[in-house]
């Protein structure tokens, strides 16, 4: 275990087995505890296993007996949704070759709308969800990166109990992406199509079978539960998986100069015209922030009828004028241009400066969801295509 | 683990009118132990709720050396603050906090203290002024430069009356629009700076409307004040108070947890817009 | 601390989130969206990735459509007025009262003293039932809905010209068009997913864009030409364009010959509208008109897009016919990405019209005057003597109510106390009624006048279909139960019919109602629920195996030959004068919907634009010495409101604009109820007002 680790958390099985509290330097001043992922700890066992594709349904159906299993299900019109399995026959709609989920799985821990507490006659009753054992099966690497980013955000400083309860007891199973959407650029952001660490299990598609990479004790334990469904991986298979990863990376055709973009932003080397153009074209639907795997902004509001009601939070974000408007009417980001800039600076500059990681995971959703084709990849292409001040 | 979003019931013990649509509320938590344990420092704020209406951040105007209550001075600006201002003593409101960082105190002992405020912006400074005055001998000069758009917009008139009589406290007031028989100075608060005969080596605490703060900081720096000795307390739309909702972000910082007190050396004045 | 314990899950903490595919409740775009439900609450709304309209995107209203459904001030129980106050009651009592009173009024003063306002926000099935209730149960043709106030001119005008009063093309086809003529439509604000397609076409493929609008709307930024006509002079500039096109020989002679009739008369009428003459009437510089005419006529795939800026005039029908003339003159109808596209406002206003919630027609625009049609409906409905004389329109219903001729009114999901012109007079009419039933999801301003208020299910709480502006009939699905005792509109209407002694309205589900609609309605002949998966079908869809119709009038017009119907310019009913010196136009903003019942209960939307404002040109503001944010009094001959000033060059000097969403400063107190003589649509877009500074507390605020 790494220095700074304090103590295994005291939750009863199966809750949060893979978490351990650490005193993180950044929050030590406040005397609060932060959380890091067990999988970043180097004592994990990296056994590779094999899962035959024909065993997947059995694995999922059996897993679902004692857990919620979220997986990509293809619905009407070919839309793939990441939803909890309700009954085994839904497994017929399982689609692990999807290109992109419209909504990243961040809404499992951070729903678009949730109540924080209810009140009646002045009495407050918190509505904190009960933690549950659940599996996110068939995640893409970029989306897990997003989840890990959001985990850190909600855990640092004052930890968010709602997020924690919704994400505790989570097992992540990545299925590496071999069918990217044209808007994906994960190879430029180093966030996919496969992930290096942070997962519990990662599956590599070898045709009839998956190579299963084990990324954590939690993942190891899960395999142990269904030992008979897993085989040992041969050297050939491991070698093959490496080739699959290379091919998968090649399938991601959209490339942007992400490093240069970060440099330009951190050095404030962005012509204002770029932001102006975006601000003018934007129709302020909010789609880019709603679909962003790392956007976490929210609003709080109350609803009440005859003394009874609740306080809610819902997704919100920096493209909206009212988001920063104060009660006095003063608004530090009144002009559209500063709001457009905020979003890009947040992802490509401030996140990077504050955490060392950019908030952009290269999923391309902000372009997919944009009615007027803006998107962060277009922004980066435009920016890095222009002369730098340097 | 503490649920930071849950506010605690408190009772309004008294209400004092400060000016048009502006009131100071003395507030006591319903739970005595909660009140006892409520430790805060000047510069911090609390999140004040009216259930069913909403929640807003309000600076604490009282000084921590007064135990057993907190005071909040609230100007009716939006739906929530106007609703709070209609409350009377005995009414219940909900509080969580305190949040935010604090004005430097220990490290500035022995130095001259300049407080520069505009309108309702005196509220957070008042907490600090009270604390400094309670330990008057540990500081140099204590100067308050205070302006408002109209004379009625000047808050804490009772306190100001007392402060003016105090030895070792200099108070200078100014109003932009002289109304209602105002005999004091007319103009903006920066115009008081020359009168204050500033000594280099002092520390300035500023709170007021954004343009006022910007002008004051620029003026101070022009007259040779160290950036590091200028502290501002910023206001932003804030929802959670705990660095999560994102509304109050400035650059990579959150006003609620990295502020609301910023030094002029750290606060990029030009970039307040971001 | 009490946590939320899931009632459904197999084990502790399991959440029961379900996601259903449905159709957005806001505008006529009809985006496909998913609603997430958790423990009886809608907790999210997301776009469908493959739906042909939404394609993974939504506007801000769609993204936030989850919120209002959950509001605690939803109506949850029937209310009955007792001693002047609305008090809660049970369903039995409320439905008994409604049916008894309506029957009484019908018996005493005749079926024509009853009127029914159906709703463009409810489903096709519910509109059909409301129409059936009026006609089959009460023998009244006095049924209408808000289409009267938005696209009545379209239904009349395009029906006469082409034989069908609907949008000729599909939304997808906007992606291929190479010229857009947008007039009287603030497309990015009102139909964002159509507006964005126009922006993309212009920016990414250099399509041509001509905007004809008195206001400096968002699309003007992208326009090649902005024709900024004086309000209400549309016939003149459209005739002017046709004049240029004919003069320069740019008209499609062969198309005109083969596919249209009445060209000679058109040529005769537009001859007078030379660019110079048009400039005098409209203020549009002659050279811009000429350039626009050339661009439009020479484009291969040209689309006309229009909305209420064209229809809401006393010359609404003439305006629509003129646009139809222009399109036919250049051969720009009847092809992919080429046509005349009225953008329908409400999510289901197309459907409400299709369903015959109109005084002159049954479903599918089958005339009540046609004996064979009546016999067909009589046979299926099991009734005799359906009324043959067209009924009253919305505006006429309120006029007659004021006179005491209409005594009983049943309103579903409409809010005329805010939405109808000269709303003070509407309120008087509502007070005069002997009996008013209002069925809605919230206690609207109109519901406050009701004798009985019936709580209805919202769009997330029932099954059914909506028909979007491109004639796409698509499903909505139940995600959660209605709050309290609220019921789906179709169940409520059936309940009223049942209590009136009518046995022909027993259905187990909306799907069964749709089967009946399909049986009676040629254009909906193939619309069965099993065929509406996943993203619906576009009418006409006459048979079970018909694939639907993406664009109309292919090869031949629905009426056979396209009919040119030239019009001459007629000035608006009320223009500014010495006393009322400003021209007022009303409309919507991007963030809000209609009377705000839903959007003002949505935190993000209400926050963006929390209150009403009047747009005033900077030079007018300077002359009047008012500043932005100042409150002024705006008055017309019909009433006055107090409202804040927003100074902007979006409006022309001498013109003002007020969004009508806000009850605190209701624009429709000011508007003129003068109507188009045939379509009976009121002239919302032009009236004369004066603006006065306000004195408060002895000093200028």
Helix content class of chain B: 10-25%
User: What is the CATH class name of the largest domain in chain B?
Assistant: Alpha Beta
**In angstroms, what is the radius of gyration of chain B?**
18 Å
Number of discrete helical segments of chain A: 14
Low-confidence stretches of chain B: 269-274
Largest sheet of chain A: 8 strands, mixed
Poorly predicted residue ranges of chain A: 1-45
Give the number of helices of chain B: 6
Q: How many angstroms does the end-to-end distance of chain B come to?
A: 33 Å
Q: What is the straight-line distance between the termini of chain A?
A: 44 Å
How is this structure best described in words?
The complex is a heterotrimer of chains A (390), B (274) and C (701). Chain A folds into 2 domains: 44-251, no CATH class; 258-385, no CATH class. Helix content of chain A is 32%, strand content 20%. Chain A contains 14 helices and 14 strands. Chain A has helices at residues 25-28, 56-63, 106-109, 141-155, 161-167, 186-189, 217-225, 235-251, 258-266, 272-281, 287-290, 336-355, 365-368, 376-385, and strands spanning 19-22, 34-37, 48-52, 68-74, 80-84, 113-120, 123-126, 134-139, 170-175, 201-205, 209-214, 230-232, 298-305, 308-315. In chain A, the strands form 3 sheets. Chain A has an 8-stranded mixed beta sheet with strand order 5-4-8-9-10-11-3-12. In chain A, strands 7-6-14-13 form a 4-stranded antiparallel beta sheet, with no helix packed on it. In chain A, a hairpin with a 2-residue loop joins strand 13 (298-305) and strand 14 (308-315). The radius of gyration of chain A is 22 Å and the shape is globular. Chain A starts with 18 loop residues before the first strand and ends in a 5-residue tail after the last helix. Chain B has 2 domains: 8-99, Translation factors (Elongation Factor Tu (Ef-tu), domain 3), CATH 2.40.30; 106-233, Nucleotide-binding domain of ferredoxin-NADP reductase (FNR) module (Rossmann fold, 3-Layer(aba) Sandwich). Chain B has 6 helices and 15 strands. Chain C has 701 residues and is of the alpha/beta class. Chain C has 4 domains: 18-70, ADC-like domains (N-terminal domain of TfIIb, Single Sheet), CATH 2.20.25; 79-149 and 348-394 and 449-538, Rossmann fold (3-Layer(aba) Sandwich); 152-342, Dimethylsulfoxide Reductase, domain 2, CATH 3.40.228; 582-700, Barwin-like endoglucanases. Chain C has a 7-stranded mixed beta sheet, sandwiched between helices. In chain C, strands 21-25-22-24-23-28 form a 6-stranded mixed β-barrel. In chain C, helix 2 packs across helix 20, helix 3 (124-137) runs parallel beside helix 20 (489-499) and helix 8 crosses helix 12. At the A-C interface, strand 5, strand 6, strand 13 and strand 14 of A face strand 1, strand 2, strand 3, helix 1 and helix 7 of C.
């Amino acid at each position: 275990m790494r220095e700074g680790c304090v103590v295994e958390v005291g939750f009863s099985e199966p809750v949060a087995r893979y978490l351990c509290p650490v005193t993180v330097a950044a929050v030590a001043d406040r005397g609060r505890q932060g959380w890091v992922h067990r999988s970043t700890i180097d004592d994990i066992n990296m056994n590779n296993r094999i899962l035959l594709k024909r065993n997947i349904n059995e694995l999922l159906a059996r897993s679902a007996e004692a857990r919620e299993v979220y997986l990509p299900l293809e619905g009407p019109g070919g839309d793939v949704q990441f939803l909890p399995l309700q009954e085994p026959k839904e497994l017929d709609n399982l689609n692990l070759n999807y290109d992109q989920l419209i909504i990243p799985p961040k809404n499992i821990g951070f729903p678009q709308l949730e109540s924080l507490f209810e009140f009646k006659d002045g009495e407050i009753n918190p509505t904190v969800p009960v933690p549950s054992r659940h599996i996110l099966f068939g995640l893409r690497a970029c989306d897990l990166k997003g989840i890990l980013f959001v985990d850190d955000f909600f855990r640092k400083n004052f930890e968010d109990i709602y997020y924690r309860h919704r994400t505790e007891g989570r097992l992540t199973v990545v299925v590496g992406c071999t069918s990217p959407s044209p808007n994906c650029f994960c190879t430029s952001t180093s966030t996919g199509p496969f992930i290096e660490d942070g997962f519990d299990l990662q599956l590599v598609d070898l045709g009839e079978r998956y190579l299963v990479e084990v990324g954590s004790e939690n993942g190891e334990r899960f395999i142990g539960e269904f030992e008979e469904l897993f085989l040992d991986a041969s050297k050939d298979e491991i070698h093959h998986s490496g080739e699959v990863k290379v091919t998968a990376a090649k399938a991601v055709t959209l490339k942007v100069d992400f490093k240069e973009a970060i440099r330009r932003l951190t050095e404030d080397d962005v012509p204002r015209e770029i932001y102006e153009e975006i601000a003018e074209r934007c129709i302020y639907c909010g789609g880019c922030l709603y679909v962003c795997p790392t956007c976490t902004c929210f609003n709080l509001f109350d609803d009440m009828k005859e003394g009874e009601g609740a306080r809610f939070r819902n997704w919100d974000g920096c493209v909206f004028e009212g988001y920063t408007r104060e009660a006095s009417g003063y608004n530090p980001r009144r002009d559209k241009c500063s709001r457009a800039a905020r979003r890009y600076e947040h992802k490509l500059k401030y996140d990077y400066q504050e955490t060392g990681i950019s908030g952009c995971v290269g999923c391309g959703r902000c372009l997919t969801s944009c009615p007027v084709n803006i998107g962060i990849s277009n922004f980066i292409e435009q920016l890095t295509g222009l002369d730098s001040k340097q | 683990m503490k649920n930071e979003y849950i506010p605690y019931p408190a009772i309004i013990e008294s209400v004092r009118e400060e000016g048009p649509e502006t009131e100071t509320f003395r507030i006591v938590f319903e739970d005595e132990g909660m009140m006892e344990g409520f430790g805060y420092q000047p510069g911090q704020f609390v999140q004040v709720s009216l259930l069913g209406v909403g929640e807003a951040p309000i600076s604490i105007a009282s000084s921590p050396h007064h135990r057993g209550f907190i005071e909040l001075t609230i100007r009716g600006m939006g739906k929530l603050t106007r609703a709070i201002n209609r409350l009377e003593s005995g009414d219940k409101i909900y509080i969580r906090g305190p949040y935010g960082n604090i004005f430097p105190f220990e490290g500035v002992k022995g130095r001259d203290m300049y407080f520069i405020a505009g309108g309702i912006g005196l509220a957070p400074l008042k907490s600090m002024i009270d604390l400094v005055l309670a330990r008057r001998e540990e500081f140099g000069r204590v100067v308050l430069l205070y302006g408002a758009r109209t004379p009625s917009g000047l808050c804490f008139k009772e306190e100001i009356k007392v402060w003016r009589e105090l030895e070792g406290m200099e108070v200078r007031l100014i109003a932009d629009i002289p109304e209602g028989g105002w005999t004091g100075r007319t103009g903006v608060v920066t115009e008081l700076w020359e009168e204050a005969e500033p000594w280099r080596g002092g520390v300035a605490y500023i709170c007021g409307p954004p343009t006022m703060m910007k002008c004051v900081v620029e003026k101070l720096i022009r007259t040779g004040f160290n950036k590091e000795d200028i502290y501002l307390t910023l206001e932003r739309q804030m929802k959670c108070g705990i660095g999560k909702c994102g509304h109050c972000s400035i650059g990579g910082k959150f006003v609620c947890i990295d502020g609301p007190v910023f030094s002029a050396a750290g606060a990029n004045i030009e970039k307040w817009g971001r | 601390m009490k946590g939320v314990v899931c009632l459904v899950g197999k084990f502790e903490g399991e959440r029961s989130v379900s996601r259903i595919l449905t159709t957005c409740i806001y505008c006529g775009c009809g985006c496909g969206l998913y609603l997430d439900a958790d423990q009886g609450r809608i907790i999210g709304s997301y776009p469908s990735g493959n739906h042909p309209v939404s394609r993974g995107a939504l506007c801000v209203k769609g993204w936030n459509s989850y919120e209002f459904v959950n509001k605690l001030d939803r109506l949850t129980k029937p209310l009955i007025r007792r001693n002047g106050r609305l008090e809660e009651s049970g369903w039995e009592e409320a439905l008994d009262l409604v049916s008894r009173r309506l029957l009484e009024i019908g018996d005493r003063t005749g079926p024509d003293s009853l009127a029914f306002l159906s709703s463009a926000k409810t489903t096709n099935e519910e509109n059909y039932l409301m129409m059936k209730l009026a006609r089959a149960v009460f023998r009244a043709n006095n049924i209408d809905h808000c289409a009267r106030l938005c696209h009545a001119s379209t239904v009349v005008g395009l029906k006469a010209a082409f034989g069908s009063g609907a949008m000729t093309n599909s939304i997808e086809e906007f992606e291929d068009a190479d010229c857009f003529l947008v007039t009287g439509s603030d497309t990015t604000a009102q139909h964002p997913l159509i507006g964005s397609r126009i922006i993309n076409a212009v920016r990414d493929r250099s399509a041509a864009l001509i905007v004809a609008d008195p206001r400096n709307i968002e699309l003007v930024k992208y326009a090649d030409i902005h024709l900024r006509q004086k309000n209400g002079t549309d016939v003149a500039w459209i005739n002017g364009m046709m004049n240029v096109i004919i003069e320069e020989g740019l008209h499609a002679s062969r198309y005109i010959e083969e596919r249209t009739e009445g060209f000679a008369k058109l040529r005769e009428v537009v001859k007078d509208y030379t660019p110079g003459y048009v400039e005098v009437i409209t203020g549009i510089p002659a050279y811009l008109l000429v350039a626009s005419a050339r661009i439009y006529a020479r484009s291969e795939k040209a689309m006309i897009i229009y909305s209420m800026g064209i229809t809401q005039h006393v010359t609404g029908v003439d305006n629509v016919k003129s646009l139809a003339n222009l399109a036919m003159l250049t051969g720009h109808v009847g092809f992919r990405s080429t046509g005349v596209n009225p953008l329908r406002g409400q999510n289901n206003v197309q459907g409400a019209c299709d369903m015959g919630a109109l005084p002159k027609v049954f479903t599918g625009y089958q005339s009540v005057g046609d004996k064979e049609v009546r016999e067909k409906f009589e046979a299926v409905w099991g009734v005799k003597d359906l009324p043959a004389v067209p009924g009253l329109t919305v505006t006429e219903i309120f006029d007659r109510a004021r006179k005491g001729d209409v005594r009983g009114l049943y309103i579903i999901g409409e809010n005329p106390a805010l939405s109808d012109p000269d709303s003070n007079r509407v309120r008087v009419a509502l007070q005069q009624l002997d009996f008013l039933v209002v069925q809605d999801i919230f206690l609207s301003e109109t519901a406050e006048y009701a004798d009985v208020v019936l709580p209805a299910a919202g769009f997330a709480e029932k099954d059914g279909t909506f028909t979007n502006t491109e004639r796409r009939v698509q499903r909505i699905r139940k995600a959660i139960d209605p709050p309290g005792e609220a019921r789906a509109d179709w169940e409520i209407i059936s309940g009223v019919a049942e209590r009136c002694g009518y046995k022909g309205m027993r259905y187990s589900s909306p799907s069964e109602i749709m089967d009946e609609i399909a049986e009676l309605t040629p254009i909906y002949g193939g619309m069965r629920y099993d065929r509406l998966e996943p993203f619906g079908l576009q009418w006409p869809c006459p048979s079970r195996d018909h694939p639907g119709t993406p664009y109309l009038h292919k090869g031949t017009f629905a009426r056979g030959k396209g009919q040119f119907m030239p019009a001459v310019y007629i000035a608006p009913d009320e223009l500014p004068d010495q006393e009322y010196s400003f021209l007022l136009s009303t409309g919507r903003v991007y963030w809000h919907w209609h009377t705000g019942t839903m959007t003002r209960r949505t935190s993000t939307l209400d926050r963006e634009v929390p209150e009403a404002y009047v747009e005033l040109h900077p030079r007018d503001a300077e002359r009047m010495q008012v500043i932005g944010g100042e409150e002024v009094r705006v008055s017309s001959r019909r009433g006055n409101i107090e409202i804040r000033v927003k100074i902007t060059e979006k409006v022309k000097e001498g013109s003002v604009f007020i969004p009508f969403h806000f009850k605190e400063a209701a624009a429709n107190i000011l508007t003129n109820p003068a109507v188009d003589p045939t379509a009976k649509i009121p002239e919302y877009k032009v009236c004369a007002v004066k603006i006065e500074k306000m004195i408060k507390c002895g000093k200028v605020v």
